[in-house]
Amino acid sequence: MCNDEATVADITLDNRHAGSIRPALVLLLAVACGMAVANLYYAQPLLATIATAFHTSSTTASLVVTAAQLGYGTGLALVVPLGDLLERRKLVPFVMLVTVGALVLAGLSPRIEILAIAAALIGVTSVVAQILVPFAAHLASDSERGRVVGMVMSGLLIGILLARTVAGLVAEVAGWRTIYLLAAAWMALLSVVLMKTLPREDSRPRMPYARLLGSVVRLVRDEPVLRRRSLYGLITFACFNVLWTSLAFLLSGPPYHYSNALIGLFGLLGVGGATAASIAGRLSDRGLDTSLTGLTMFLVAGSFALLALGGHSLWPLMVGIVALDLGTQGTQLFNQAQIYRLDPAARSRVNTAYMVAYFVGGSLGSLGTGAVFATAGWDGVCILGGCIGSCGFVLWLTERPWRRMGAQSQ
After folding, report:
1. Burial code of 295-322, b = ≥16 C-beta within 10 A, e = fewer?
2. I need a labelling partner for 56 at 20 to 30 A (CA). Which of 131, 162, 221, 294 fits?
3. What is 18-409's CATH number, 1.10.730.10, 1.20.1250.20, 1.10.10.10, 1.10.3720.10?
């Protein structure tokens, strides 16, 4: 456990006093998380169109996604820890209003460099989703925490997946810039709703900002569960971005030649997996996190065999997308269920450590995919994803969950 200051544990709200969270508030938090994180993914189905609009290569266009992921990682490191220090009812709407400005800049960008800068700013400020997820865990009682986090994560994951569909459809009708301007309006409205709806909190801890950030490093040092789960998250999200950064280039070229609208519709394939996150939350409440993580990691690694066949056949591609989304989302839920049990007074900082690793993995996946697709095509991308995913499954095997279960049964 992290023992920063006695006053922090005393002043910070913890779950000893948490009651049952209202279903309407859970729904609002789920919608807010989904809309916030969606801002990171509008560009993915539009990369081929963006490359054409700015007369640049696929590798350069993919840097827009990489910039957003790196920005998100930066926001996780520098902004999310403030959730343990400042009242989230004020912090979240303020950060969302900054997101509005970044989205407008993206929609009006005259050059690819400006779009990449705007994407990085969008990433930094869209971390409000990762302030709200531990807030939901804090507001829930012990017996319902897995279910509540699963429902909020369902909203977040549906936001990620629908972002691609909505972006593709809007771009087909009104051009790729329009989605960013519409998103700016949505975020402005949502910031006002959250300002009026989020519950007030008691006195927040007094701690210098530098010490707050330093405590994140100490959490990583002291918590082996956090380190292992962060590695799982890094690997699975790298695989996730290996697919989604390259998919638009595959589908816009031979043999598919799909439009922006059709490419965006592929995001719907993962919605079923996202809604399954609430089921995973209930399984987590039963203590099945470790054993089921092996299954979800296997899905991530194995999905790339199907995706490789999808270079020339639609059905294996669709099934592979579903399998990858299920594996990624299930692993994410089981990871967060375990890390939120570590220290009730430091949930935002625990989430920071985990999500920084998560989005570092995503950034590396995006960056590597752009180069691999340009040189080795779709087959090279699938080999890359399969190798990364296999490393995650091998890492899970070292946890030896069956030995633990056997020891507990004796």
Report:
1. bbbbbbbbbbebbbebbeeeebbebbbb
2. 162
3. 1.20.1250.20
The pair of three-digit structure tokens given for residue 59, joined into one six-digit string: 């590798």
Task: Render pLDDT for 63-98 as a digit per residue (tens, 0 to 9).
Answer: 898 899 889 889 988 998 888 888 888 899 999 999
φ/ψ of 265, rounded to 5, equals -65, -20
Spans of all domains in the chain: 18-409
| pLDDT, tens only, 229-270 | 999 999 999 999 899 888 988 998 899 999 878 887 887 887
Q: Which residue has the higher pLDDT, 2 or 269?
A: 269
Q: Which of 71, 74, 83 is CA-nearest to residue 215?
A: 83
* Nearest alpha carbon to residue 280 among 291, 268, 288, 272: 288
| Three-state SS at 404 | helix
N-to-C CA span, the chain = 29
